[in-house]
Amino acid sequence: MIGIIGAMDAEVEEILARMEADREETASGIVYHVGTIGGKECVAAKCGVGKVAAAVCAQTMILRYAPEAIVNVGVAGGIGPDVRIGNIVVASGFVQHDMDTSAVGDEKGLISGLNLVVIPVSEPLSALTLETAERLCGKQKVHSGIIATGDQFISDRGRLERIRDEFDACACEMEGGSIAQVCYMNGTAFTALRAISDNADEAAAVSYAEFFRESAHTAAELIAELVKKI
Ligand code: ADE
Fold this sequence. Notes:
This protein has helices spanning 9-16, 51-65, 125-137, 157-167, 176-186, 204-229, and strands at residues 2-6, 20-27, 30-37, 40-46, 69-78, 88-96, 119-120, 142-149, 169-173, 189-198. With 230 residues, the protein is an alpha/beta fold. It has a single domain (2-229), classed as Nucleoside phosphorylase domain (Rossmann fold). Strand 8 (142-149), helix 4 (157-167) and strand 9 form a beta-alpha-beta unit. Helix 2 (51-65) packs parallel to helix 5 and helix 3 crosses helix 6 (204-229).
């Protein structure tokens, strides 16, 4: 079984539209939709916004369904001039940009316990995710890079430049780095694909409102193709 997690209604609705639904089950206050995509057994859930909601959703999914892999799908803010609205970012790793114990001597972003700043994604799953996105969207629209996760909607150039400079990130969002940590701790394979809805700058809220649906649609289409190939 493959687990699919999105944060928002539209992100998950786009997945469910491509899924033969079988049943719904509620656990930890989250609805898990069980069914198939292209004959492949899946469980899809809307985790809600932010790191805690995402962690609860991923951990409950792992304990209840023991998926062979979890895929995180959704939209993100693009960081850097090349990462444009409508482009796709496939995570090469995740950081939690709001994790900061540097006051006690740690590297910024260090997740103590894991002793990592960059949480890895899984291979060959991520290579397959990148290959699928490049095949369907064209190489020039697809980026592979670090995605920065934190409990903030980034809409400020200063903040986004700090995230880019500290972590070499090419996109920001609010859940992936948390799901990555849960998967890493449980030994569950993990990949993430995000479609860019805004540039995480002062215009981000307006762009996000305009492009969220279209970007969620693109991301779901790619994930449905990916799942058939896992
Ligand atoms: N998801 C989409 N755009 C975002 C942004 N600018 N900051 C955080 N999460 C996002």
